User: Fold this.
Amino acid sequence: MRPQRLTPLGILTGMLIAATAFAGAQQYTHPKFSELTQTHKSVAILPFKVTFNMKNMPKNTTPEMLDQAARDEASEFQRQLYARFLQRANDGEYSVEFQDVDQTNALLTRAGITPDSLAGHTRDEVARILGVDALISGTIHQSRPTSTGTAIATNLIFGFGGSTERVDITMLLHNGVDGALLWSYDHNDKGGLSDSPEAMTKSLLKKVAGNFPYRKSIAAKRTPAEPVTSK
Assistant:
């Protein structure tokens, strides 16, 4: 049987499929990541900055309602992200440990740093306060609030709910010593991805799982075989 030749249309279709697979995702890794992080042992996850598309908000939505919804979702996303990273770390996937978010938030509060004032502090300053080697932070831009926390009340009052339709997430990893950007991941998704922060973190880590820079290699995770001794 003769092999089928690809037509120009077939080649173009294949290119479009490949492009679609990588659409919406961008990644950066510091060229000296291994060198800069060779002594890293602990990472803290900061509350992400959450914003909504104001075009999708009812006219009688107040700024106070949106601010509360954003704080609630940022807190829940932080907890869900920590839980999933912790589970993977316990399974031996990562070479670092993740600081409990309750401890992270308590130390920030003790230092007088709120989620809204985080932007006024350098990453190396925050890392020193938390006593960690690196920081995970980021932003989440949603079409509308998810069905969690204050958003539930908002849905009931204003009559909209369901999925957020579109979510844009940026995850950043900064070095605790000098605040240098070590790694970043930008991703957007559409079509009912995120009806909760739990769904967002689950989807995000599916995309990030094989690319997170602290991830151990398969060979490193294997238990070395015992040497065979001759009798």
In short: The domain at 26-216 is CATH 3.40.50.10610 (Rossmann fold).
